[in-house]
Design brief:
The structure is a homodimer. By secondary structure, chain A is an all-alpha fold. Chain A has two domains: 40 residues, Homeodomain-like (Arc Repressor Mutant, subunit A, Orthogonal Bundle); 128 residues, Tetracycline Repressor, domain 2 (Orthogonal Bundle). In chain A, helix 5 runs antiparallel to helix 6. The longest helix of chain A has 27 residues. The radius of gyration of chain A is 22 Å and the shape is flat. At the A-B interface, helix 6, helix 7, helix 9 and helix 10 of A face helix 6, helix 7, helix 9 and helix 10 of B. Chain B binds a DNA duplex through helix 2 and helix 3.
Chain lengths: 211, 211
Amino acid sequence: MWLRPPREPRQTLSLGRIVAEAVALLDEEGVARLTMRRLAERLGTGSTTLYWHVKTKDDVLDLALDAVFGEVPLPDAGGDWRERVREVIGGWRAALLRHPWSATILDRPLMGPHALDHTEALYAALAAAGLEGPRLKAAAYSLANFVMGSVIMQVTAEGHGDAAAFLRERAARYPLLARHGLDCDWDAAFADGLGFLLTGMRDGGGTGAPT
Amino acid sequence: MWLRPPREPRQTLSLGRIVAEAVALLDEEGVARLTMRRLAERLGTGSTTLYWHVKTKDDVLDLALDAVFGEVPLPDAGGDWRERVREVIGGWRAALLRHPWSATILDRPLMGPHALDHTEALYAALAAAGLEGPRLKAAAYSLANFVMGSVIMQVTAEGHGDAAAFLRERAARYPLLARHGLDCDWDAAFADGLGFLLTGMRDGGGTGAPT
DNA sequence: CGATTAACTAGACCAACGATCCGGTTCCAG
DNA sequence: CTGGAACCGGATCGTTGGTCTAGTTAATCG
């Protein structure tokens, strides 16, 4: 009785605290080391407790991924539509690259509120440019897929750094790959690719091309 | 002695058999159900035996993924460069979609012999169009990333089929998304996006634009 | 005020996993 | 004949995601 600690303040473990700590843990140690036990330990509680707030571990990952999307600011309307698209897509890329683990868990539906908000913003920016119908859909589709693929490939390449040497050794068999696959300026390549898409959807065939 | 089975023929477990069986198992049951034990069982052996041929489970996945790339035929030279690029990229997409599990393990270096062969072929097709230097690199970069992102997004969407209904319920908050996110003609959207990229790298600024 | 209920916490436990240890067997080169 | 490399598997280790059961706190309602 008298040895009892002087009334611990209630932890008030909340979904928000769990997600924030999960993101921190993922940032520091990567996706492979995120376990319910370790996460609970960092939160000063037991692993079982987490399952009151969350149904499975996948829920934690879903929430963490959406939290990453929540970091990127929504673009303000107005201005050149191309600039707005660059803003949205570039914001996604920056946020995902800031948390490299997120690129490795992109194989799940992006249905969190933040992800949906930003996807809607992308559609809005494209619709403001005059796109509509299947052409609008194709534009959003290709932009979103391009940025996802870019982030995954960059994170993968940077995470396994010996790829350059590996390619150099096989320059005889893969000459073009060895010449251009190294010395990566990721940002420039990304900007160029985005430029291809934007001018392509301006000049491409079909109806409803933006100005 | 007398109870001994009449001389089982040597299993001759080889890397090829392991990879083939792994692909079959992945096709039938998905990536989550690929375990070394189950794979060994299907091969009529013990799980330990696999570790003689393979260092870790990741090796199996690496090999299986490269086997998928091995399915797509290399394009023959000649003809319109745009058609050849469509052939390469479309081949990747078809093979990856034929094995949906492959899209979820794309977050690893694509350094298998088949993957490298096809990447080199992509560079060759673009170089034949007159591209070179950073512009060639940006073209290959954007095409590869576009197709990877497309496959991942499509597989993800098709694997969790209730997304459409989910969006319909939230049509008030995400009007554009609800209107265009459903009724997906994936092939058409992909072809359109690929068209954007191809015309973009023809008409885009800079030097060395192909004809 | 007392009782019920929802929110919250934890220890013990389960089946399954990747991986390893150790011991055994087959086969071929020297 | 022999030694070593290739090949095989039972038992086992430590860890994981998840559940069962049981306990405690805080707010609500009659």
